[in-house]
Write a structure and sequence with these properties.
binds 2-acetamido-2-deoxy-1-O-phosphono-alpha-D-glucopyranose; about 375 residues; 13 helices; binds magnesium ion; binds adenosine-5'-diphosphate; Phosphorylase Kinase, domain 1; single chain
Length: about 375
């Protein structure tokens, strides 16, 4: 897809600010993220086209971009240093690499006040919006588990919270209750059943934050946005290559990460599937996730973390459903939407997954018990 003239002009101006090799050739929108604007950029280095990823960071959502980029630099440099000690590792592929600007900054701020960053393009690997099968679920979960493991010894100070209370489910629930009361776009009547579904499950929202507050769940460096399309899978051998989209790496419980993997990698349908008849939770995919995740993380998890693995899938799927429904009621201000009712379709798919995970709750616990 060609990109609109003025956006293209902006990239022609933005890209040379970074230490990319070669002259800017072209750029096109890339990926299917809901928050930032991502471009696949090409430069010409002595007659060879070199790809890069350049992103405009959504600074309406991420209000402290310098702090966010400091987090990303600390995390990626730590991962790179760890990979240097692993024989045959390829740090340019196995962690994101921030390309600095020509004046040594990790981001460029343009005259409109927009923030931009550039990464090495990871070639020969792909992100998938839906999991292709158990082997991919295993690899994705193992990659996220290794990511957490490698960041266990990130030196102090703690990372900044790039979005406060990002996975604080009770706050997300309270925001939904507020949006229902305000009903700013007169949409509540069009989703009365979905609202009723959400409100009837408010009690579970407290569970993980209560366990953190009680000291049962440790805070670690977690990714917090582990949907399946935030891990790159090798095109040739299917291995998990690199965890990407590091904007929300900050202190959290590993259950936020595992729960979001369950949300996105156990479904037979897209996150925004409009036909709920096509949405099913697959226990075999859940088993592959548990297997892959524990292969990477078993050695450092405490019992309480393992004990909540199955529940976390239900909770985080519910939480993201609550966020989609809130955004629908608010008038689609947060997530990018591509059709009317898009956020409502997303919410309904999440709630259908929650319903099926509730039906499968005991079987999910048995799977965890087999692999722990
Ligand atoms: P968002 O926060 O909007 O989801 P992401 O950082 O996840 O943005 O990037 C969007 C998409 O761009 C990813 O799903 C992936 O396909 C692609 N992408 C991001 N970074 C890279 C990279 N370094 N190399 C190759 N592809 C990338
Ligand atoms: C957003 O950026 P992206 O598309 O990977 C969102 C996540 C949601 C996800 C739902 C910063 O992720 O929290 O789970 O959409 N990211 C932010 O698909 O809000
Ligand atoms: Mg993403």
């Amino acid at each position: 897809m060609a990109i609109p003239g003025n956006a293209c002009h902006r990239l022609a101006d933005v890209v040379p600010r970074f230490c990319v090799e070669g002259a800017f050739v072209d750029a096109r929108p890339y990926g299917s993220g809901h928050i930032n604007d991502t471009y696949l950029v090409r430069t010409d280095r002595a007659g060879r086209l070199v790809p890069w990823i350049t992103q405009r960071i959504n600074h309406g959502i991420f209000q402290d971009v310098p702090g966010l980029m400091e987090n990303i630099c600390r995390v990626t440099e730590h991962l790179r240093a760890g990979l240097a000690a692993v024989p045959a590792a390829d740090p340019d592929r196995e962690t994101l690499t921030v390309i600095p600007t020509r004046d040594g900054m990790p981001y460029h701020r343009d005259d409109n006040g927009d923030f931009w960053r550039t990464y090495i393009f990871i070639a020969g690997a792909t992100t998938h919006d839906q999991v292709a099968g158990p082997a991919m679920a295993y690899e994705a979960a193992k990659a996220f588990g290794s990511f957490q493991s490698r960041l266990r010894d990130l030196p102090d100070p703690p990372l900044r919270e790039t979005i406060p209370r990002f996975h604080h489910t009770p706050s997300r629930f309270a925001r939904l209750e507020h949006a229902i009361r305000a009903d700013a776009r007169n949409r509540a009547a069009s989703c009365a059943d979905d609202i009723a579904f959400a409100l009837s499950r408010g009690a579970m929202a407290e569970t993980l934050v209560a366990a953190i507050d009680a000291g049962d769940l440790p805070l670690r460096v977690t990714h917090n946005d582990t949907k399946i399309n935030n891990v790159m899978i090798d095109d040739r051998d299917g291995h998990g290559v690199c965890v990407i989209d590091l904007d929300t790496v900050m202190p959290g419980t590993v259950l936020y990460d595992f729960g979001d993997q369950v949300r996105t990698a156990t479904a037979t349908a897209a996150e925004d599937e409009g036909d709920l008849g096509r949405v099913s939770f697959r226990l075999d995919l859940f088993e592959a996730l548990v297997h892959g995740y524990l292969d990477a993380a078993r050695e450092f998890l405490v019992d309480a973390e393992i004990g909540f693995l199955a529940f976390s899938g239900r909770l985080i799927t519910f939480e993201i459903g609550v966020r989609f429904l809130t955004d629908y009621l608010d008038g689609d201000a947060y997530f990018k939407t591509h059709r009317p009712g898009h956020n409502l379709d997303r919410a309904r798919t999440q709630f259908e997954m929650v319903r099926q995970m509730e039906e499968n709750a005991e079987r999910m616990e048995q799977v965890v018990a087999r692999h722990r």
